[in-house]
């Protein structure tokens, strides 16, 4: 994010992680991480049982 800001891009959010790589994303500077699987569990496959 900082490298992009240094190039003059007005960014304030860096989304680069999900539940499975939460720690790595934070270490790399992510400011937004999706954690749905960690909270709600895995999704059902499309066409699967209801």
In short:
This protein has 50 residues and is an alpha+beta fold. The protein has helices spanning 2-6, 22-27, 36-40, and strands at 15-18, 32-34.
For the structure shown, list the relevant keywords:
2 strands; single chain; two-stranded parallel ribbon; alpha+beta; 50 residues; 32% helix
Describe the secondary structure blueprint for this structure.
Blueprint: H1 2-6, E1 15-18, H2 22-27, E2 32-34, H3 36-40
Parallel strand pairs: 1-2
What profile does the largest beta sheet have? 2 strands, parallel
> On the 0-100 scale, what is the average pLDDT?
84
Structural class: alpha+beta
* Number of spatially distinct domains: 1
How many beta strands in the DSSP annotation?
A: 2
**Distance from first to last alpha carbon:** 40 Å
How large is the share of residues in beta strands? 5-15%
Percent of residues in helices comes to 25-40%
Q: What is the succession of H and E elements? A: HEHEH
> What overall form do the CA principal axes indicate?
elongated
Given the structure, what is the number of helices?
A: 3
- Residue runs with pLDDT of under 50 for 5 or more positions: none
In quaternary terms, these chains amount to single chain
Question: Which strand order do you get reading across the main beta sheet?
Answer: 1-2
Overall radius of gyration = 15 Å
